[in-house]
Design brief:
Length: 278
């Protein structure tokens, strides 16, 4: 198991393959395991790195540093540790918000950006009906170690659940540090950059699940990104890259190869070809 000391904290990482660098980052209470199908599928053409953020997976559990800004700084420091100058960043859920921070604060390090079911750029709205109660119930179930209840509910709210995968994700979620569980959530509530998404010029792919509660927020954020494309999967919920990995991998590889393709880019290509033919 490879552990790098990053910004004073021991963070897990694993490398596969060679070529242009791609860094894969998990979501809130997640771990690198969620990329176990995706990472090997990229390794034939890309130097693929998976990592665990502080307080999660196989990384150490510091008392603090659980902010979006620090998580982004940890990603960049991990790239520095591995001798990677520029990279494509792929982040799921909270990892997607970390991607937004990378696009805003470290754009010079990014080749492309992939936001997979990202948490809202305007922050999690705790004023929504039932949200505060849901959060408090989740905290209580965690404190009680109510694995069976959490597993049953996660299975029921996953559109295409794999029982083994979901069970492992629940175990990983229960193993995160208290700092990760509490402070990361607060960070997702308070981190608000929706009005700054127009500053992200990095070619970006937004990936959403039609059965994910974050779909509308994802669509809103996509519309504010100036250089982005969108892929929405039908009958897929929040864990897109695990629920149906093969189509996700296909969409990801297509974006890595072709970048953002929109009507505007196609028309620009036509104009160039027309000018060259004169």
């Amino acid at each position: 198991m490879a552990i790098a000391t990053i910004n004073g904290v021991g963070l897990f990482y694993r490398e596969l393959g060679s070529g242009p660098a791609v860094i894969l980052h998990h979501g809130y209470t997640g771990s690198h395991d969620s990329w176990d199908t995706v990472a090997p599928a990229l390794a034939d053409h890309y130097r693929t790195v998976v990592m665990d953020c502080r307080g999660a997976g196989d990384s150490s559990h510091p008392a603090g540093g659980y902010t979006i800004q620090q998580y982004a700084a940890d990603v960049v420091a991990m790239a520095d540790y591995l001798g990677i100058d520029r990279f494509t960043y792929v982040g799921h859920s909270m990892g997607g918000v970390i991607g937004m921070e990378l696009g805003l604060s470290y754009a010079e390090r990014l080749q492309k950006l992939v936001l997979v079911a990202p948490a809202p750029a305007d922050g999690i709205d705790m004023a929504l009906p039932g949200m505060a109660e849901q959060r408090e119930r989740g905290r209580r179930l965690r404190q009680e170690g109510a694995r069976d209840v959490i597993l049953r509910e996660r299975m029921a709210t996953t559109a295409r659940p794999n029982p083994e995968t979901v069970a492992h994700a629940v175990d990983r979620a229960l193993s995160v540090s208290e700092g990760h569980y509490e402070q990361s959530w607060d960070a997702l509530v308070n981190y608000r950059v929706g009005d700054r998404l127009g500053e992200i010029a990095t070619p970006t792919l937004v990936v959403s699940g039609a059965a994910d509660g974050l779909l509308l927020a994802n669509l809103k954020d996509f519309q504010r990104l100036p250089n982005a494309t969108l892929h929405v999967f039908s009958r897929i919920s929040h864990g897109i890259h695990q629920e149906d990995a093969a189509p996700f991998i296909s969409a990801l590889r297509d974006f890595l190869e072709h970048g953002v393709v929109t009507q505007a880019t196609l028309l620009a290509k036509l104009r160039q070809e027309t000018a060259a033919a004169r």
